[in-house]
Amino acid sequence: MKKIEAIIRTSHFIPVKEALHQCGIDFFTFEDVKGVGNQKTEKTVYRGQEYDLGSIARTKLTIVATEEKVEEIINSILTSARTGEIGDGKIFISNIDEVIRIRSGERNASAL
Questions:
Q1: What is the CATH code for 2-111?
Q2: pLDDT in tens, 13-26
């Protein structure tokens, strides 16, 4: 099994969510995150004065899936989140040794 973490533009969350649902991923977690990168930081205007926020707002998705689904998930994220501009985000993939469903005690693929 693999854990896929994707950091995407917050404005692309709905298209990515819909693309994941289309490929059969109905459960994942997400959170609003901030970071820094190659993209210029975001600015806000308060009382006519522009302020540099020093960070970039993004959404981080965490998906655990069987190895057979990984490429399909990656392609769904790439096609629905890509703008071709700096700041589109990153996808990280790591190994998961074991998954256990708390309610039933099921393990690994059946726990997903």
A1: 3.30.70.120
A2: 999 999 999 999 98
